[in-house]
User: Which sequence fits this backbone?
């Protein structure tokens, strides 16, 4: 349970504290690897989303911009 909580907090911290796309990309890649090693299937959806849509997700690190109105 603690491991799942830590993965969740790690992902949250990436988006809250990272302001550079390249650093964000590296941190997300490391997070993705941690998810793969953890074996938690509950993280597969977000992990696949990050892998399948990296550019869209990385745009968030530019001035915290999103595609929401």
Assistant:
């Amino acid at each position: 349970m603690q491991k799942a909580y830590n993965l969740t907090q790690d992902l949250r911290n990436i988006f809250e504290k990272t302001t550079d796309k390249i650093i964000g990309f590296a941190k997300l890649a490391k997070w993705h690897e941690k998810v793969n090693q953890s074996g938690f299937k509950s993280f597969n959806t977000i992990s696949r989303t990050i892998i399948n849509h990296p550019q869209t997700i990385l745009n968030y690190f530019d001035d915290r911009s999103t595609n929401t109105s």
In short: The chain has a mean pLDDT of 89. The chain has four helices and no strands.
